[in-house]
From TrEMBL:
SUPFAM superfamilies in alphabetical order: Resolvase-like
UniProt domain Resolvase/invertase-type recombinase catalytic: residue ranges: 14-162
Transmembrane segments annotated in the record for this chain: 554-574
A Pfam family of this chain: Recombinase
Name of this protein: Recombinase domain-containing protein
InterPro entries noted in UniProt: DNA_bind_recomb_sf, DNA_bind_recombinase_dom, Resolv_N, Resolvase-like_N_sf, SSR_resolvase
Keywords: Membrane, Transmembrane, Transmembrane helix
Gene Ontology MF term list: DNA binding; DNA strand exchange activity
Signal sequence, renumbered to the chain: none
Domain Recombinase residues, every copy: 176-290
PANTHER family noted in UniProt: DNA RECOMBINASE-RELATED (PTHR30461:SF23), DNA-INVERTASE FROM LAMBDOID PROPHAGE (PTHR30461)
Length: 578
């Protein structure tokens, strides 16, 4: 039986304090300040020394992962503390599976206990204490699920009462009636009021489109020339026109852009008469049936969803901290151009085009061939130079894995990232199903990015050759030399026999945006967790491939991905700990 660290009275117990908070819990005593105070008091009374504070302050939709929790688990493996103190079991995890997984690892493998300062369960080796803790964890998960149901029910009741759930569109506003000092935010009345000036603009838009003389793009161009702006201060685009023209709030209904929501009469005043509104809907359907399906949906684009127009960066300058700035990001769409050459043969090539050039003609960026941009990005990635210190850490971690018995658990530790992504997906599902903060397009785009990364992480899980694990030192060293050669030359990745989808998934995992001006890539923006790797790399440095290729025995393309991910994770956590 593993000895409980809290019983060791010969030395001062080193403590890690974990704080987790979400906005909806602040009024239940779970505020960060209260958690800190209670943990400090407990440590002082029991002669413990807090050697590290780990805080994940989650708020609404902004939480992406529990970075400090993962950092704490890394530090636990390095024996930086003897005990973890939490305020309440729900702060450690809110589902039984996750709680058991990490507590079993901490207690069973690392001999580090997890203690709640407000729930005296006793020694975790005691069956009664174990049962008590498990029951509390079960109730934590029950409360989380019950809270979700209450939120869904309250949203549904609000809709049935005729109140809208989201922010008012162009033509409406909510009157400010006070200020919440505790939550530090303004208070607005529930009912929407008509904004007379904006309402006139809405009527003008509907009348122009109903006349069949203008397209959505042409209306946007006209309004922008008149210096008209959207509800949030942006220029009009095809997308904003489409959103306005399909919004049933303007005829007095409680509207959601989602499908299968029942139509309920709202409490707000309608701006349009139903005859004009439904005439516009008929015109939309007629034009929609004539357009057909875009050719782009049938083609493969390596950088789909990642390419942005640098000429249009002005639309988000100074608005980097605004929550709605993503709506104005100048993402470039994919389109395949087709024509007949002089021989009468059908010729086609894929392109990236600026949405603002297409939607309101406000950009001079011309369509650029995909292969021109793709080659520049690939050339940049071929020249990655991993710092020697990180290569050493990666090889040390691999060597540790390879010396384990062949029947030991999976050698990869991708489970941490997988858990984070699964939680993010669950949160997105909840937000999409129960609130109106996201459109279907936003939801599908974010879920696709998560699913692509999950697919890649699952692919690279059990990929180290079984004949190497636990085998002779000579074979292990040969294997590690091959890995070291690869890590010192990323060009091997692009020469490997891998499919386009795997290559695309890897690119999407590390790259957030590719900024294009003309036919040149002017900037590559990585995801936050991989910025340290990019900062160590210079665009004009491209290393030639090594003379010695990987042997057939070890040339496993899935293992290439594993090495890259392992390197990135070590680099990420190493950077966080500095």
């Amino acid at each position: 039986m593993v000895k409980n660290n809290t019983e060791n009275t010969n030395r001062i117990i080193r403590v890690a304090a974990y704080i987790r908070e979400s906005t909806k819990d602040q009024d239940k005593g779970f505020s960060p300040d209260n958690q800190v105070r209670m943990i400090k008091d407990y440590a002082d009374k029991n002669g413990m020394k807090v050697v590290g504070w780990y805080k994940d302050l989650l708020s609404g939709t902004k939480s992406e992962n529990r970075g400090d929790f993962l950092r704490m688990m890394i530090d636990a493996e390095q024996k930086k503390f003897d005990l973890i103190l939490i305020y309440h079991t729900s702060r450690f995890a809110r589902n039984v599976r996750e709680a058991r997984k990490y507590k079993d690892k901490l207690r069973g493998k690392l001999n580090i206990d997890v203690k709640s300062v407000t729930q005296p369960f006793g020694n975790w080796n005691d069956p009664s204490a174990f049962l008590n803790e498990c029951v509390n964890e079960m109730f934590d998960e029950y409360y989380s699920k019950q809270l979700s149901k209450w939120v869904r029910d309250s949203f549904q009741e609000k809709r049935l009462q005729g109140y809208q759930l989201g922010n008012p569109p162009l033509g409406y506003y909510k009157k400010e009636i006070g200020y919440d000092q505790e939550r530090e935010r303004k208070i607005y009345e529930k009912k929407w009021r008509v904004h007379e000036k904006e309402a006139k603009l809405v009527k003008k838009i509907f009348q122009m489109y109903a006349s069949s003389k203008y397209s959505m793009k042409e209306i946007a161009v006209i309004l922008n020339k008149e210096n008209k702006i959207t509800k949030y201060g942006h220029p009009f685009t095809y997308s904003s026109m489409k959103s306005i023209l399909s919004n049933k709030s303007y005829i007095g209904l409680v509207y959601s852009p989602r499908k299968n929501y029942p139509e309920v009469q709202g409490n707000h005043t309608s701006i349009l008469d139903k005859e004009l509104f439904y005439k516009v809907q008929e015109t939309l359907e007629e034009r929609k049936s004539k357009r057909g399906r875009p050719v782009a949906n049938h083609r493969f684009y390596l950088l789909r969803g990642l390419v942005y127009c640098y000429r249009c960066i002005k639309h988000i300058k100074g608005k980097e901290d605004k929550t709605d700035r993503t709506k104005m990001l100048p993402k470039m769409y994919c389109e395949t151009m087709r024509w007949k050459n002089k021989k009468g043969e059908m010729v086609e090539y894929p392109t990236y085009g600026c949405k603002f050039s297409r939607e309101n003609k406000s950009c001079s960026q011309e369509k650029v061939r995909c292969d021109v941009i793709d080659k520049q990005v690939i050339k940049y990635l071929e020249g990655f130079n991993v710092p020697d210190e990180i290569v050493k850490k990666t090889l040390a971690k691999l060597e540790e894995m390879l010396t384990r018995p062949a029947d030991e658990e999976k050698i990869t530790d991708n489970s941490k990232r997988i858990d984070t992504l699964e939680k993010k997906a669950n949160k997105l599902n909840f937000i999409f199903k129960n609130t109106e903060q996201m459109t279907q397009e936003q939801y599908f785009n974010e879920m696709k990015a998560i699913e692509d990364e999950l697919k890649l992480l699952h692919q690279v899980a059990p990929v180290v050759p079984r004949q190497v694990i636990g085998n002779t030192a000579k074979l292990r060293q040969q294997f590690l030399r091959e890995v070291e050669d690869f890590l010192k030359d990323f060009n091997n990745l692009w020469q490997a026999d891998i499919g386009n989808e795997e290559r695309q998934a890897w690119i999407q995992m590390i790259i957030k945006r590719v900024w294009v001006k003309g036919d040149k890539v002017v900037a590559i923006e990585p995801h936050d967790r991989y910025k340290p790797l990019f900062s160590a790399h210079r665009k004009n440095i491209v290393h030639s491939p090594l003379a010695t290729p990987l042997t057939d025995l070890f040339y496993l393309h899935k293992f290439i991905f594993f090495c890259i991910i392992l390197t990135y994770e070590i680099l990420y956590y190493y950077t966080c700990s500095q």
